[in-house]
Amino acid sequence: MAARNPPAILAKGQAPNNRTVIPVIDDAKRVTQIKTRGDDDYRRHNHQMHTDRKQISTSIQQKDVILQVATQLEDASESTPFAPDPQNSFISRGRFDEIMTPWVVLQIIRQLECYKKLKPDQQNSVAKDVYYGSSNGRRPPSRKLLVALIVTPDSYGPRPVESFDILVEEGMSDVCLPLSRHEGTGELYCESHSCVHESINKLGSVRKQFRKYFAGWSRALTAPFIVWDEKGLHRHYIMEGGGPLPTMGTSSLEHSGGFGKVWKVDIDPKDRRFKSKSHPQGQERHFALKKLNQNNSTSTLTMEFDMEVRSLIFAESRVNRIPEAGDTETKQHLIQLLATFEVYNTRKGPPDYYLLFPWADGDLEDLWRDEDGQRNPTDEMQLDFMIDQFYYLTKALQCVHNDRQEIARNTGTDGRLFGRHGDITPKNFLIFRNVLDQQLHWQGLRIVLADFGLGRLHSEVSRSKDDGSNIPHTITYAAPEYDVDGRWLSPKSDIFSLGCVFLLYIVWLFDGANTALTTFSQERMSERDCRDTMDGEPWELDRFWVKTVTEGRRGAAIKESVKRRLDNLRNRVNCVEVVGDILTVIERRMLRINQNDRFGAERLVFELDRIRKQWKRADSLYGKRAWKDVER
Question: What pTM, to 2 d.p., does this model score?
Answer without folding.
Answer: 0.82
